[in-house]
Design brief:
Elements (H helix, E strand, L loop, with lengths): L1 H4 L4 H35 L4 H8 L8 H5 L6 H27 L9 H18 L7 H17 L3 H13 L2 H6 L3 H30 L1
Helix pairs in contact: 2-6, 2-8, 3-5, 5-6, 5-7, 5-10, 6-8, 7-10
């Protein structure tokens, strides 16, 4: 997350965040529209943080490209097996993302933008968690379409997180904290880990949706 790492002093950080804000305001608005589209359904039966923590305790499965290609022979039976794996795997990875965003320091996790990102992952986790694991081609088709939609909805998460940094900088605490090298490095390391996990989620969905 170079907007933090490259900014060892407050002036450079301010410039970097201003640049980010200018390029993300429009997409930030679009992301919030996505949130409004599912908020009522989500709030009615939101998955609890205790449930999230329990699911996050399950380690994500390390995967190689070779392993992913084993599902790519076009067989419906293999695709259903892939769906079973993805159904379980995404829950663990979504839960990890929620915990990582919730643990962001110096109030970043409490900014409006980051809270929207957290609720996005909670919604997607809840959606899959409340859905039974696919057992046939018809159920696989429904599941695959659902996670494809989730991937599309998640397209705006990067600028959303960046906008959260801008929100943090606008507070007295954030402005002071972001001048500290240790805080910048801590945020950078945490966001690097989060974005790496996000790439994994999108790769899994993209691969399953394309085979």
């Amino acid at each position: 997350m170079e907007i933090v790492r490259c900014s060892a002093n407050s002036h450079l950080l301010s410039t970097a965040l201003s640049t980010v804000a200018k390029t993300t305001v429009a997409r930030h608005g679009a992301a919030l529209l996505h949130m409004d589209a599912f908020r009522a359904d989500f709030e009615a039966s939101a998955i609890t943080m205790d449930e999230v923590r329990e699911i996050a305790d399950n380690d994500p499965t390390p995967m190689s490209l070779r392993q992913m290609r084993t599902f790519a022979d076009g067989s419906k039976k293999l695709h259903v097996l892939s769906a079973k794996f993805v159904h379980k795997e995404l829950q663990s990875r979504y839960a990890r993302a929620i915990m990582e965003l919730s643990a962001l320091p110096v109030g970043l996790s409490h900014t409006t933008s980051v809270r929207h990102a957290i609720n996005f992952y909670r919604y997607e986790l809840q959606s899959i968690n409340r859905m039974k694991s696919p057992t046939n081609a018809a159920e696989d088709a429904v599941f695959t379409e659902r996670i494809r939609s989730a991937k599309e909805r998640g397209s705006n998460l990067v600028p959303l997180i960046c906008y959260g940094l801008q929100e943090l900088k606008a507070t007295d605490l954030g402005q002071s904290a972001l001048q500290l090298q240790s805080v910048q490095e801590d945020i950078t390391d945490r966001l690097d880990k989060f974005f790496l996990g996000r790439i994994g989620i999108r790769m899994i969905i993209g691969h399953h949706g394309s085979v």
